[in-house]
Amino acid sequence: MLPWFANDKFPLYLAPMAGVTDFVFRRLCKELGADVMVTEFVSAEGIVCRDDRTRKYTEFDDAQRPVGVQLFGANGEAMADAARKIVDWKRPDFIDINFGCPVNKVVSKNGGSSLLRDCPLLTRVAGTVAKAVDVPVTAKIRIGWDMENINAVTISRALEDCGMQAISVHGRTRSQGYTGEACWNTIDACAAAVSIPVIGNGDIGSGEDVEKRRRETRVRGVMIGRAAMKNPWVFQEAKYYLAHGTRPAPATIDERWHLIRRHCALALESGRYGGERTTLQAMRSRLMAYSRGLPGGKHLRVRFSSVESLAEIEDIAAEHLSLTHDPAAEAICAA
Question: Which fold is adopted by the domain 3-244?
Answer without folding.
Answer: TIM Barrel (3.20.20)
